[in-house]
Amino acid sequence: MFTAYLTLTLLAVAFTGSAAVANLIGHAYPKKEADRNRIPRSWVRPLGILLGAGALGLLAGFVVPILGTLAAAGLVLYFVVALGAHVRAGNYRLGAWVVYFGLCLATLTVHLA
After folding, report:
1. Where are the domains of the chain?
2. CA 31/CA 98 separation, integer angstroms
């Protein structure tokens, strides 16, 4: 079980951390997605900060387990809200969303197990 916990947590950190970096450096992909979902581009960096905080929280969970669990729950909530933004905008390109949400949900599951 520890192997699954370690693997999923590190994968979630890598995925959400890289998405956070893309948002924070102003990469074209997050801007394009913001436009598709009718979200102001001024939100891209704050959303990157949330993703980065989630990734750091998952890492902190190795030292203080409750922080990892709370970070995983926060990331699941983040991606549930992101789904709402996609649906509201009529953007049903959900491939990346499924990967990120599934990974964060699996991470939360092993944190709770």
Report:
1. 2-112
2. 19
